[in-house]
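Action item from last week, closing it out:
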Amino acid sequence: MKIALLGNLPRPLDNSLYRGIESFNSSLADELTSLGHDVTVYTSTPTNSSCELKNLIDPSCLGKLKELYDKGRTNSQDFAKIARHSYLSVIKEIESLEFDLIHNNSLETLPLLASSTINTPMLTGLHHPPTSKQKYLLEYQTYRPKSFYCASSNIIRDVWKQSFPDLDVAMIETGTLKLKNTVELNLSESVKSGIWLGSIKEDCGLKEVLEGCNLAGVDIKVFGEIESESYFTNEIGPLLNKSVRYFGHMDMETIKKHMFNSRFAVAGADLKRSWILEMLANGLPIIGKSTPELKELINDTNGRLYPKNVPALVARSIESISSLCRVKIQQNAIKDWNTTTMANKYEKVYKFLKAIHDRDKKEKAYWYLYTSSKQRSLV
């Protein structure tokens, strides 16, 4: 199949949702290409993808777009004009090149709006709760966009279904792990320390985790960006010592080196799904406060969740993970959340949507021939 993956206009570098979607497009495109599909990614972010990449935006507009971001004018008419021109130009090109399907992962509503005017079936990926623009588009327009929808998790699907109960939304869990990237595990009994990942801010639960580690008698390394200086200085600083060390905000490749000599990982509040999966792929049981996001990934075989941030509950969770098999945690993570499995599932959806589109197209052709012959008989 000839597939077009739609990305996003450039966003500020700290926009993790934007970066996550662009990474999703790149990984999915590589896997689809390996399955024999002809894939083109329309993006504004350079990637190492093996498939064809095309600019989503005219390079001459990048300077103006950056200026609008710097001034906080992303809701201005100037920004809307650039976005409209970019997406409509790309969709026109997709139509002219006769793609079999558009997989729209854009945060903008323009591709959705255009879906009713084009002859190419569209699958729209839902990676976040509906924005105000998307709600307006689906609630108040006289017609709904002609698109199919696929959520990246059960939580996202449930949020969309709450807003639009009659919207037909499929679900394919986002896989971020590579089958060939299995890492070696350090299974030495002497390894007992853990790592904590997350944003350091009020109510993040880090203080209770450090106190819980002290009760359990284990060391812990802390990684994450400090969002609240006062919280870190007043609550976390006094707890730092040889057993509790803060390493700052680091990239995943650097943290992986510390994972090798760790026995467990604690997921801080709002830790990205991709980071949690990476820790599971490194054979680390996950400990954390029970949230809908964590409950979707963590069960009794790969971690422990506690109901509230209480040091005693954290300590009990740490002590109970000794019975978990790290090899099975790694194997199950890679089996369930790898990019190859994800691509295979999307391939089935693509073929299903194309079959529906081809059937509808054939029925319209028959209807046209039938009505035309009737009209001719009346002449």
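Closing note: The domain at 2-175+340-370 is CATH 3.40.50.11930 (Rossmann fold).
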